[in-house]
Amino acid sequence: MEKRYSQMTEEELREEIADLKVKAQKAEQMGMVNEYAVHERKMTMAKAYMMDPNIIEQGATYVIEGSTGETFTVSYLNGVFAWGTREHSHEEEALPISLLGEKRS
């Protein structure tokens, strides 16, 4: 039975990310877009578990990694997820903290 990311050590998470990177590259080379996206999401989650949630500030606005400058304002944290709203949206959603890049305010 596989361990959950929350139960893994930092070294185990690094190994998992490396394995997922290889799988994602293979899927991309074979044109398997959906499989590639799954591996990318898993890497994002593993990276979130390697981060300290205390570095994310409630009420602050961050650039979303991988976007074209889209921002996300954090309302609150729940584990490794930041809950809040995207720029120009009123719908609350959760993003893994590893997707939050440069702080804007």
Please give a quick description of this structure.
The protein has helices at residues 10-29, 33-49; strands at residues 61-64, 71-78, 81-86, 93-96, 100-103. It is α+β, with helices and mostly antiparallel strands and 105 residues long. Helix 1 runs antiparallel to helix 2 (33-49).
The N- and C-terminal alpha carbons lie at a distance of: 43 Å
Mean of all residue-level pLDDT scores? 95
Low-confidence stretches: none
User: Superfamily at the CATH H level of the largest domain?
Assistant: Hypothetical protein YfhH like domains
Number of continuous helical runs = 2
Give the strand order, joined by hyphens, for the main sheet: 4-3-2-1-5
Q: What class would the helix/strand composition place it in? A: alpha+beta
- CATH hierarchy, class of the largest domain: Mainly Beta
Helix and strand succession? Answer: HHEEEEE
In the CATH hierarchy, the third-tier topology of the largest domain is known as SH3 type barrels
The Rg value, from CA coordinates, equals 15 Å
CATH architecture of the largest domain: Roll
What is the helical fraction, as a range of percent?
A: 25-40%
What portion of the residues fall into strands of 2 or more residues? 15-25%
Q: What is the number of strand segments?
A: 5
The figure for the number of domains is: 2
- Main beta-sheet strand count, sense and barrel state: 5 strands, antiparallel
